[in-house]
Amino acid sequence: MDLNQQKLTKTEWDTTEIPISSDEKEILKIIIDGYSNVNIIYNKNSSMINYLKMEPNDNIINHLHKEYFEPIIKKLNDKYEFEFESKIIMKFQRVNSMEKLKLENISKTIQDCGHKIFEFYLLHIAEQAMRYFYKDNTIKFNKYYYTLHHLMKLKITNVIPQVMEFIEAVLADYYEELTLEDMFLQSSDLIEKNEDLVKYKDYHLYEHQKQLFTISKTPNPKLVLYIAPTGTGKTLSPLGLSETHRVIFVCAARHVGLALAKSAISMGKKIAFAFGCNDVSDIRLHYFAAKDYVKHNKTGKDIKYRDGSRKVDNSNGDNVEIMICDIKSYVCAMYYMNAFNQPDKMIMYWDEPTITLDYAEHEFHSYIADIWQKNIIPNIVLSSATLPHQEDLQETIADFTSRFENSQVFNIVSHDCNKSIPLLNTNNQVEMPHLKYESYEKLQDSVAHCKKYKTLLRYFDLNEIVKFIHYLDTANLIEDDRYKISIRYENLSEMTMNNIKIHYLELLERIPKEQWTSVFNHFNTLRTSRFPSNINVATTDAHTLTDGPTIFLADDVEKISKFVLQSIKIPERVIKDMMEAIEHNDKVLTVLKQKERQLEDSLGDEVEKENKMAKERITPEQKKLRGEIDGLAKLVKTIALNDLFVPNKLSHMRHWIQKDVVGREFSCNIEPSDVERIMLMEVKSSWKILLLMGIGVFTNNHDNNYTEIMKQLATQQKLYMIIASSDYIYGTNYQFCHGYISKDLGNMTQEKTIQALGRIGRNQINKDYSIRFRDDSLIEKIFVDVEYRPEVDNMNKLFNTPI
Description:
The protein is globular and about 90 Å long. The strands form three sheets. Strands 6-5-7-4-8-9-3-10 form an eight-stranded mixed beta sheet, with helices on both faces. A six-stranded parallel beta sheet has the order 11-16-15-12-14-13, with helices on both faces. It is an alpha/beta fold. Helix 4 packs parallel to helix 8 and helix 6 packs parallel to helix 8. The protein is 46% helix and 8% strand.
């Protein structure tokens, strides 16, 4: 995470202009449209009528059913001795000429695109369920039945009714053959790793977004304590809020603000930036937000750049919908926005307000106190996965309500959970409350804590939960029938990730004290290690890091980096050759930087430089300098690292684990163009070699160019691993599948530990995730309440107005 409170670089500005994918745009559109309709539901899959863009009427429906679906249903009836006859009666009218023409022309389209049509997919899943039932394959039958049940609940419109009727008949008939206990035991495969449900899922707002949007429409001043798990869209919620309010998005971590800016620009939102501002003149508008343009002093015409765009007049922010700023610049941004808007029509949205509050003293504390004391905007959202709860912030709340008349305080606490990210102890065993606490009293303390902070549910391994619940059920240790599997999940719609994890906490809370020791001993005798070891991240254990990148969090980043580099055992001859090439490049780089500075100085400011370069109005000396720069760039030597030393490449896997096929093992994808840029960086040679291995290092002590390249490679999922200090965790939105928490982070606070966990598992649900602890004492900071919470103390102190 980059906490520098300074102006945006040209590279950072340019990254905000990179368009996002069409899939991302669909999600953002739901957030924006969802502001006015919080119950919005979108499904990008199509029924046949929708796919063909036809008006649904009895004629069209009858024709499509008889032509394409009735033969399939008849075949299934005959093959599996299933007695189904449609009871739907439709009026048949004469087909008009336009309909007739369309129907005659769709046959080829259906043949080519049938796999995209929902009705065909429903019938395919139904056939698989029937097939495996007759093969007596319970595991596969359960999976297809469960899938079919949930597919029928999707909000896909204009599905052929006879197909729906057939599927309902199949579900009703085969329900009698289900064994709910068997299905429950398969929960992980049915829920977490069910690609069919991921592919066809509905998209809608998270519950916490619905609450936020509803609250924001209330007229009185409001303080919203917004707590929701990482990766559930909190930082994108301002896109919806900006539909009726001007939003000032405050973030200590600049990359979070830049990610929001990129999304906002892609959706046509009008934004401005306030980073490293000393006064309002430092604020910059994005081109979309411009209302006025700078005129030439002599001609009075708009000043234009070489691409034809006009120079924006940054002093007029009348069009700005979202102002994105760092904490140093908030007061400037607030006064700037206040010049164009009424305070009650604005929202201050503070992302991760507890950053640096784990320190007794920090330079940011004065900024934070200044923001709170000078703020005049009556609508505040404090957003974080680990924000202290309302009862912990009474001093801050009292101060807010005293400053803004008729104000209200809202507490949004969400535990939306659609994946499991297991925590592994130093023995590589899954850690959970029922496996950790032999003491019944400690167990109950843990249950109370987890019920209060339900965001922790994502770190409960679903497989372990299922085994625990099933054991209590079959051993008749569940006294209340309501908590037995056959009753709790009689309606299959209740068999969801969230419900199963809540069920687990409820059983832990109710288990008789006299039974606990035997239950604890039973599960601890069955514990196994997932891997023989996991610390050799660049060699023998690399293959356990699957599906996506890994983040290794440590206090001493240098030590971990050195260990990783030494463990790969690159031969001395190879290192010597690489070092000679790097030294050569460093000499070239020194001269190259000097020439570039000379050219920059001679060209003048940015506007003058743009005009001169566009119109080739440069002096012979400047042309010579430019030629020398081009020549020096060509002298840079490209360095390639043999795949043997790159984790999870085929040669590497053959050497370290004798495996000849690459499966889900994740490796880097460093391209030649990336290597060229890496060679021109002013950073340690060892870091350059690590980056060629696909391993990047995040600290404050390196070249800004290195940071930029790292961010780009991380965003593009090109890195195998990032090694970073704990200060790089808040709001990091890179997609990690695995994480290491180093031994030297034993002093991390509970909130910071949970923030560290939140960096992992932001990808799709059907992947493998893990968080691996190098010191078990840190796990204690997750499952139980702690007395020392500096973030709470500092928040009440700094988010307060001195008398």
